[in-house]
């Protein structure tokens, strides 16, 4: 079945702009979930919209700020349900207050004036990804806020998919289960998603930049905290008594391989990253994160950090050094490998829409990393936004339109998969 995707232009762009105007910025360390009340403003809008779209089962878990919708299958035969998840919040990195999205038609490849009054210009030379969208239509900001296409471009695509089925009731589909969750940008890990209510035993998170990219693996991740005690006495009488925690901390840091740091690594290479080091003569604390795609290498990295701490403990005394490593999330590949149909179906849907699927190891974690280990396998499909988390974020409307087509194709493939 071929679809004229131009029909999606107006609904996806209108939706993204409408959602973008609602500030849903999340915040670190507020000590409550959702981390900000304002995420509820969008949740409520989406809940009402699901109802207007005629989605059979809708639910708004107000306490946890999670919105659910389930469009029931219109088939007589059983088939796998299709699960889709996107996040409500925008990153704390840039303001989302008073976002003023606008549409630039037929981009000509040049610099884009975002805000004439304030002289804010997005230079084509500074953002080489712009040249990929020559002749396309871009939704941009006024240069003072982020756009929040991360992840509202995904929400817009999902809603437009549901609208498509409302307007084309004869198109076959199985159960389509959607959920919108808060706080992805601040490590919320979709912790309050109720799997029973969601209704599908697998799902795709929709997030990430380039169109047609998908992700079936993330880092394994842990955090190490190295606490160092010193002995502080007057410098004049320190000989043989003083133990300077700053010296021990710097000794520890020098043991970490110099090139295995975020700024020197890419692709599937792992690293150690020193998040912070606070030190005085009396005490020091080093916070370190450890990342690797490969489980064995990851465990070796953890063991290496422990051995460095142990070496110093032997040199200075056990009482002076402690090392604590906490797991943060795990590579979801192990889980995704148990449901190979998910990636097969996704790749087929993308390529059936004329795009070459690109598998990209995700150098971070996603809600999917956590959901996968809690029993809901979740690979990720890109949303098509660019320059996320900043004031120069934009979304090509054609990417969102194409994503709607990919989702329709994916739903069709799922409707033909009996799960046997
Ligand atoms: Zn995101």
What does it look like?
The protein is an alpha+beta fold and 420 residues long. It folds into 2 domains: 297 residues, Aminopeptidase, CATH 3.40.630.10; 109 residues, Alpha-Beta Plaits. 30% of the residues lie in helices and 20% in strands. The protein contains 10 helices and 17 strands. A hairpin with a 4-residue loop joins strand 5 and strand 6. Helix 8 crosses helix 10. The radius of gyration is 24 Å and the shape is globular. The chain starts with 8 loop residues before the first helix and ends in a 5-residue tail after the last helix. The model has no long low-confidence stretch (mean pLDDT 95). The structure holds zinc ion.
N-C termini distance: 25 Å
Beta strand count: 17
Structural class: alpha+beta
The number of helical segments is: 10
Shape descriptor reads globular
Give the name of the CATH architecture of the largest domain. 3-Layer(aba) Sandwich
| Radius of gyration, in angstroms, nearest whole number | 24 Å
**Regions with pLDDT < 50 over 5+ consecutive residues?**
none
As for the number of domains, it is 2
CATH C-level of the largest domain: Alpha Beta
Reading the helices and strands in chain order gives: HHEEEEEEEHEHEEEHEEHEHHEHEEH
Name the CATH homologous superfamily of the largest domain. Answer: Zn peptidases
């Amino acid at each position: 079945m071929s679809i004229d995707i131009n029909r999606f232009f107006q609904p996806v762009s209108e939706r993204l702009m409408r959602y973008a105007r609602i500030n849903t910025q999340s915040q670190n360390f507020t000590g409550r979930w959702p981390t900000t009340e304002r995420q509820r403003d969008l949740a409520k809008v989406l809940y009402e919209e699901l109802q207007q779209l005629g989605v059979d089962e809708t639910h708004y878990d107000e306490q946890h700020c999670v919105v659910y919708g389930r469009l029931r299958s219109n088939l007589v035969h059983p088939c796998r349900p299709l699960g889709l998840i996107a996040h409500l919040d925008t990153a704390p990195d840039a303001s989302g207050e008073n976002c003023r999205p606008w549409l630039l038609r037929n981009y000509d490849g040049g610099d884009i004036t975002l805000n004439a009054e304030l002289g804010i210009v997005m230079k084509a030379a500074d953002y080489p990804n712009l040249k990929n969208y020559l002749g396309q239509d871009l939704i941009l900001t006024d240069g003072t806020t982020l756009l929040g296409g991360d992840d509202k471009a995904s929400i817009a695509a999902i809603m437009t998919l549901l609208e498509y089925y409302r307007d084309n009731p004869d198109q076959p589909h199985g159960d389509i289960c959607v959920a919108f969750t808060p706080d992805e940008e601040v490590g919320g890990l979709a912790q309050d998603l109720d799997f029973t209510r969601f209704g599908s035993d697998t799902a795709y998170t929709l997030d990430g930049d380039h169109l047609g990219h998908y992700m079936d693996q993330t880092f394994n991740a842990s955090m190490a905290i190295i606490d160092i005690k010193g002995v502080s006495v007057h410098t004049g009488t320190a000989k043989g008594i003083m133990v300077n925690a700053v010296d021990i901390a710097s000794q520890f840091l020098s043991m970490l391989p110099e090139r295995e740091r975020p700024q020197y690594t890419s692709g599937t290479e792992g690293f150690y990253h020193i998040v912070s080091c606070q030190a005085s003569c009396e005490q020091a604390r080093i916070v370190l994160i450890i990342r690797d795609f490969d489980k064995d290498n990851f465990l070796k990295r953890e063991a290496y950090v422990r051995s460095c701490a142990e070496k110093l403990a032997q040199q200075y005394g056990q009482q002076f050094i402690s090392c604590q490593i906490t797991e943060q999330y795990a590579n979801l590949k192990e889980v995704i490998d148990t449901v190979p149909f998910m990636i097969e179906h996704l790749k087929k849907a993308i390529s059936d829409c004329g795009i070459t699927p690109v598998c990209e190891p995700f150098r971070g974690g996603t809600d999917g990393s956590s959901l996968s280990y809690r029993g809901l396998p979740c690979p990720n499909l890109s949303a098509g936004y660019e320059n996320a988390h900043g004031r120069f974020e934009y979304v090509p409307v054609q990417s969102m339109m194409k994503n709607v087509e990919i989702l329709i194709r994916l739903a069709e493939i799922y409707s033909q998969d009996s799960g046997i």
